[in-house]
Amino acid sequence: MTTVVLMGPPGAGKGTHAELLAGRLGVPVISTGDIFRAQVAAGTDLGRTAQRYLDAGEYVPDEVTNAMVRERLDAGDCRPGFLLDGYPRTLDQAAVLDEVLAAQARSLVAVVVLQVDQEALVQRLLRRAEIEHRSDDTEEVIRRRLEVYAEQTVPLISLYGGRGLLREVDGNGEISEVRERVLHVACALTPAE
Ligand code: ADP
Q1: Which atom of ligand 1 is nearest to the CA of 148?
Q2: Closest by CA position to 129, among listed 114, 146, 141
Q3: Averaged pLDDT of the chain
Q4: For the chain, which domains are there?
Q5: How far is the CA of 191 from the centre of ligand 1 (A)?
Q6: Structure confidence by residue, pLDDT tens digits, 82-123
């Protein structure tokens, strides 16, 4: 059973590399950002709650996010394991993930962190804004998302570092270069046949 977390600031390329990494590990990608956007598009109650946080670049409150993730990780397709993209992002979420994993009698195998220089992140997100028109890709909201990441999510790096789970990947450079580095990490995580 392979349970892995993929972490990194907005614009680091989590979404770009998640499928590849999950494919190599043989597990589904669970992306909280994608789930929230799908709920917004479907106009559900959860979507309506999430939208104002997404648009402001703030995290959706932990109790909302945690409840959604608990339910998702109980689904049948998560039995072989999962790659979490964008969760946990707060210490409270990390504690809930520990609980969920303990209840499933498993534990995290690794936390892969994509590291990218700050200015490169802003440039990437502004470029993406022109192409994808995501409502949270304006310069002001981008800067806020980076701040929130530094305040609330960076502390998780030492938490997982202390547990010996961190696998840091240099996310600077071309997508193809980063892909090679991600694959290298995936190989090290795949149990030998
Ligand atoms: P990015 O990593 O580029 O910010 P995501 O698609 O992962 O993009 O997330 C988009 C938004 O969804 C976040 O800014 C936040 O509002 C919300 N979100 C995603 N994951 C979480 C989470 N674990 N906790 C709270 N909010 C979240």
Answers
A1: 14
A2: 141
A3: 94
A4: 2-187 (3.40.50.300)
A5: 30
A6: 999 999 999 999 999 999 999 999 999 999 999 999 999 999
pTM for this prediction: 0.92
State the pLDDT at residue 191: 64
pLDDT of amino acid 137: 82
pLDDT at 17: 96
Cβ–Cβ < 8 Å for 11, 116: yes
Q: How far apart are the CA of 83 and the centre of ligand 1, in A? A: 15
> Which ligand 1 atom lies nearest to the CA of residue 8?
2
> Given the structure tokens 């795949």, which residue do they identify?
190
The CB of 54 under 6 Å from ligand 1? The reply is yes
DSSP string, 117-159: -HHHHHHHHHHHHHHH--TT-SHHHHHHHHHHIIIIITHHHHH
The closest residue, in CA terms, to atom 2 on ligand 1 is: 10
Q: Give the residue whose CA is nearest to atom 4 of ligand 1.
A: 10
